[in-house]
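Retro notes - structure team

What went well: the batch runner handled both jobs without manual restarts.
What didn't: labels got mixed up in the shared folder, which is why I'm recording both outputs here explicitly, each with its sequence directly above its tokens.

Job 1
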Amino acid sequence: MSLTLEIQDARWRKLRGISARLKKAVRAALKQADADETAALTLLLTTDKRVQALNREFRGFDKPTNVLSFPAENEDYIGDIAIAYGVTAKEAKAAGKTLLDHTTHLTVHGVLHLLGYDHVTPRKAKVMEPMETRILASLNIADPYEDQ
């Protein structure tokens, strides 16, 4: 696995061990999905403003969101993931989770999207969400869907 981790918002650097944790999360997601574990991807840890611009440009929604995934049509390079600091920090606090755990979940979520998994219908969510839960359990992170 080749992960390019780009940190554009310095606040992400305050999370001790973030690089190692997110690499481990990407590996676990690739393995659980039976994907090519030598695949490459880029993870952008950025600002709400940058994610809002990407969301506007590529999805037509002029608002920030927690995570965006941009699948690539290439076997060796599966795509790009962008995670917004402010939205993610706010969600983590509201849910009583650590920012590192929530960011790990969003990374796993993003990788699964790059691999073609989705949750737009209840049927698709029944596949994707339990997979996320298994991956996160392997990383000692609680089920994010438990209290929904």
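Job 2
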Amino acid sequence: MFECVINVSEGRDLALLDELSSSVSSSLRDRHSDEFHNRSVFTLVNDPDVLVQDVRSLIGAAFARLDLATHQGVHPRFGVVDVVPFVALDTDQSAVALSMRDDTARWIATTFDVPCFLYGQVKGRLRTLPEVRLGAFRSLPPDVGPDAPSPKLGAVAVGARPVLVAWNLWLSGVTLLEAKVIASTIRRPEVRALGFEVGALVQVSCNLIDPMKVGPSFVYDQVASLVPPGGVIQRAELVGLIPAAVLDGEDPSRWAMLGLSDHQTIEYRCRLA
């Protein structure tokens, strides 16, 4: 089984998001939307043949309905379909995920004339998504497709990576500058973090790159120790799904505080099919 976690630059129009969801057959396991980021994360899991078809259907539907020129949101983005990472849930199948990544990037570039940047293993070295965001169209040319972004659709980062956990902490009584300092302080090879203003609150938005080594509880406690006097962690939020092994590594008495449950695991959602 393989996972593909497609990040789409729309998080407010629920009817449109329902329409995009309906473009997917059996692979869709979760959809998470955020109005402040104006972004949705579609988690697809299936065997390769079905997964690739559902990925293409969702990308095609998003390209048909969305326009990057009208998009506003706090999350960094350079495309209507911003990020398309493939994940081998069995690490012995990583080469298959790389093949799906490369085939999908070529399909996007050929079918829609949209430039694509690869991340993961590229030309014998590891290229990260932050590298792509930093260098795209400046120091880094697209791997496939035209040299300039589409005015309507932008560009796409297509990756092959291990499992990660996307997870946010919502804070009150904390300024945006303080949230950015907290995010910078907790950043490490296993944790990517950014600070955002989300309505009346701020958010420390995290990607746990090696969640078996550095999990949600560790990051929660670290952030709690850095929150200034008067500040409070209001809630934690999982974006997408979490591997059961990562959840099992957390104290069940803390699951609610961490915004986690056994119904949010990849394994549970796949059993529902």
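One thing worth noting from job 2: The chain has two domains: 2-160, 165-271.
We'll revisit the folder naming next retro.
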